[in-house]
Amino acid sequence: MSEHNDIAGTAALAICESLLLALNDHKILPEEEIVGILRDAADAHENAPTSKEDGLHTAVAQLINGIIAGGNSVRRP
Which domain of life is it from (predicted)? Predict the structure, then answer.
């Protein structure tokens, strides 16, 4: 993956995490819904059809599951 893609991916992740936090802070989506969105995204990569991108899909699913486990997508008291 090129440096440009790494930068774009990191920016996209930061923006999405900020959006999820804002949706929760403003009581638009509860924590359970946000975690559900993240689980759906991880599942999509875990269940992706077999291809030369298998390593990428596995890494993406692991990253998303790490975000869920770390609680980065919602502010916890």
Answer: Bacteria
